[in-house]
User: Fold DUF2062 domain-containing protein from Aquirhabdus parva.
Amino acid sequence: MPKKFIRRYIPTPERIAALPGIHRLGSRITDPNLWHINRRSISGAMFWGIVCAWIPLPSQMLIAAACAILFRVNLPLSIALTWISNPFTMLPILYSSYCIGSLIFGVPMLDITQIKHIIIQLTTSLFGDSASAVPTQYHFNLGALLVGLLIEAVVLGAIGNILVKLLWRWHVVRDLRERQIQRKQYRQDQEKS
Assistant:
């Protein structure tokens, strides 16, 4: 069952409630619905975790926790999925979102030299002398980025939700067929003896 696999990696509500600062949430954090491992809870957590991962703010985990509590889906999974966006994946996420937004808004896409100048400017300002940063002339549309982020988040969240439901159903049907085969084999063995 997928429950056994998932339960192996998710902490217990008591362990989470014992963490410092969690007592402020009160009894909400120990609500059994936030810790259920069923198709609805896991697929909902997949949706909200992925959507919150695409929010370009440092408080993604808090937003995912609030969504999990509000929609009563699996809390640990929705928080864990926010780590899809990390320092290694953030640049591709932002670039693909800007591509989607620029197509919708009809604004020109950034070419490779402009991206190279942006990366050089960011690295020199972070690790070197900011006075020697490479000046860049580009038109960046924030609206295109935000709309692209929203569209990408909702579409990928919906795909994740649907995939979890389909995989869950496939796993349950497969287990049911295996049990039917075992029962049939058992009956045949009983008839022979």
Observations:
- The radius of gyration is 23 Å.
